[in-house]
């Protein structure tokens, strides 16, 4: 993990800990490397001065501490100390040496299938412990996973919430990271352990491809793709693609449980280590279009504005946003069946099994623009002709 020197405005001592370096900064606060008198190293997070007076941020900070206290096992950094009543609230966890998954992929490139499966199996086991504590992380992503010598560790529970809580701070604002948010988070429905499973699948895809399965773009564009488009898993190894695709199901009820993920990924890691070829992927649709054809820049913003208002907002028929719709919480011993890609309705087929010819969105969009321009042209031409005729009539008189 990259370390930076302390700045002039940074504190030198917090509680019983002396601070030595900056480890990073986020929206809520700054994380420092510190040590106590015995030399025990900690990662100490202090809330930003401008946010310390904000009760909402204090509450979020308190939730992070509460979540850290409830989770058992080695999947997270152990809580060492905290002071929520301080002028600038803080807490300290055991320091985890090692890069984040994001930094490792950025520096060394994509990971081989065996390593992705091994990391994924340990992460899934860690998520079992997180969910058994009644916590949903809500912001699982590569930068919140540290690769320690003893295995991956999940960090940053700043927006974690109890099972079944809403995902919005206010209407229309989803909390989390676009590209790793689940569709139900975008729609504003209740979060469940299945919400973390979606982010888990996107994280595995990133480790295998160095990119989000929904490409790149503005927040509006990314949120639209998460809700309405299929993920692009073209670069994901065949051994992992079916499981990743299952994690990225739009319907939370179709995603596998964390227990199933841990077991399946452990099997895949062992098989890949022995060099056994994976079966060919079947029933996994490619992205709605190759990534280069997806709109970027100003076209991407226009793309989002024209679709997000009517597409992302939950409608009366939306399953994820429907009142009373609940997703069963998987238990440790649960054996909820996993729907394979072949069992799910393939793209381009209706419920009755009949095929239909798909119409690319880009083509439909261009057709609408052409019709609109033709209508404007005809209208202007007619108005101009009427004005000319009126002027000629005036000259006669």
The largest beta-sheet arranges its strands as 1-2-3-4-6-5
Q: CATH superfamily of the largest domain, please?
A: Transferase(Phosphotransferase) domain 1
| CATH architecture descriptor name of the largest domain | Orthogonal Bundle
Distance between the termini: 87 Å
CATH topology of the largest domain: Transferase(Phosphotransferase), domain 1
What does this entry show, briefly?
ATP binds at residue 45. The chain has 397 residues and is α+β, with helices and mostly antiparallel strands.
Question: Can you tell me about this structure?
Answer:
A hairpin with a 2-residue loop joins β1 (13-14) and β2. The protein has two domains: 16-94, 2-Layer Sandwich (Phosphorylase Kinase, domain 1); 101-311, Transferase(Phosphotransferase) domain 1 (Transferase(Phosphotransferase), domain 1), CATH 1.10.510. The termini are far apart. It has helices at 55-70, 101-108, 113-132, 183-187, 193-209, 219-228, 241-247, 258-273, 297-311, 361-396; strands spanning 13-14, 17-25, 29-35, 41-47, 79-83, 90-94, 135-136, 145-148, 151-154, 161-162, 168-170, 173-174. The longest helix has 36 residues, at 361-396. It has a six-stranded antiparallel sheet, covered by helices on one side. Strands 7-10 form a two-stranded antiparallel ribbon. A two-stranded antiparallel ribbon has the order 8-9. The protein has ten helices and twelve strands. It is α+β, with helices and mostly antiparallel strands. Helices cover 38% and strands 13% of the residues. α3 packs antiparallel against α5, α3 packs antiparallel against α8 and α6 (219-228) packs across α9.
């Amino acid at each position: 993990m990259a370390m930076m020197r302390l700045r002039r405005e940074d504190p030198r001592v917090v509680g019983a800990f002396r601070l030595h370096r900056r480890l990073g900064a986020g929206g809520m606060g700054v994380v420092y490397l510190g040590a106590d008198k015995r030399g025990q190293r900690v990662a100490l997070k202090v809330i930003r001065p401008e946010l310390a007076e904000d009760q909402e941020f204090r509450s979020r900070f308190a939730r992070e501490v509460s979540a850290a206290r409830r989770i058992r096992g080695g999947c997270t950094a152990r809580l060492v100390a905290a002071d929520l009543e301080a002028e600038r609230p803080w807490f300290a966890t055991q320091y985890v040496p090692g890069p984040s998954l994001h930094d490792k992929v950025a520096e060394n490139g994509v990971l081989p299938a065996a390593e992705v499966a091994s990391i994924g199996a340990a992460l899934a086991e860690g998520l079992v412990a997180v969910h058994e504590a009644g916590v949903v992380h809500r912001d699982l992503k590569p930068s919140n996973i540290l690769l320690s010598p003893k295995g991956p560790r999940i960090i940053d529970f700043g927006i974690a919430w109890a099972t079944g809580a809403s995902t919005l701070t206010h209407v229309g604002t989803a909390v989390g990271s676009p590209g790793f948010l689940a569709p139900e988070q975008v729609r504003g429905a209740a979060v469940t352990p299945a919400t973390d499973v979606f982010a888990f699948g996107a994280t595995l895809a990133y480790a295998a491809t160095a990119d989000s399965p929904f490409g790149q773009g503005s927040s509006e564009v990314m949120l639209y793709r998460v809700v309405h488009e299929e993920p692009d898993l073209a670069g994901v190894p065949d051994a992992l693609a079916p499981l990743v695709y299952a994690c990225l199901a739009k319907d939370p009820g179709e995603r596998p449980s964390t227990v199933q993920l841990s077991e399946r990924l452990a099997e895949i890691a062992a098989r890949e280590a022995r060099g056994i070829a994976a079966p060919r992927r079947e029933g996994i649709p490619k992205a709605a279009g190759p990534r280069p054809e997806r709109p970027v820049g100003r076209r991407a913003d226009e793309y989002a504005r024209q679709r997000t208002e009517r597409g992302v907002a939950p409608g009366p028929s939306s399953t994820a946003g429907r009142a009373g719709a609940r997703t069963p919480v998987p238990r440790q011993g649960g054996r909820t069946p996993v729907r394979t890609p072949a069992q799910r309705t393939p793209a381009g087929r209706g419920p009755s099994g009949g095929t239909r010819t798909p119409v690319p969105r880009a083509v439909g969009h261009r057709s609408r623009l052409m019709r609109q321009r033709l209508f404007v042209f005809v209208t202007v031409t007619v108005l101009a002709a009427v004005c000319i005729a009126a002027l000629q009539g005036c000259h006669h008189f």
